[in-house]
Recover the amino acids of this structure.
């Protein structure tokens, strides 16, 4: 399984809201597959943004949210654009999900 295919699953694991976790995974997977039907490169570009935010996410988690990097901000924005469940998750939940990549 390619690393980028694990993104929805890993985000699912990191979210602490079990009742909505299944919907979150389905929503993000549906958005990425629908948006990439014309070009397989578009989803991998989105996932690359999230993967590149790992260092910023680590700093954010380690500083208890006091350090916010530009790459983390871009990844948070992207995740929330792709999924209603990500919009409901806290920045800390999403940062931890990014770290599970």
């Amino acid at each position: 399984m390619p690393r980028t295919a694990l993104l929805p699953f890993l985000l699912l694991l990191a979210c602490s809201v079990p009742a909505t976790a299944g919907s979150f995974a389905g929503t993000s997977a549906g958005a990425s597959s629908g948006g990439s039907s014309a070009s397989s490169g578009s989803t991998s570009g989105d996932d690359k943004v999230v993967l590149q935010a790992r260092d910023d996410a680590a700093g954010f988690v380690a500083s208890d949210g006091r350090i916010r990097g530009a790459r983390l901000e871009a990844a948070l924005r992207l995740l929330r654009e792709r999924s209603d469940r990500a919009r409901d998750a806290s920045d800390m939940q999403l940062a931890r999900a990014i770290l599970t990549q």
Q: What stands out?
A: Helices lie at 7-14, 18-35, 41-52, 54-62, 70-82, 84-88, 91-99. The chain is about 75% helix and 0% strand. Residues 41-101 form one domain.
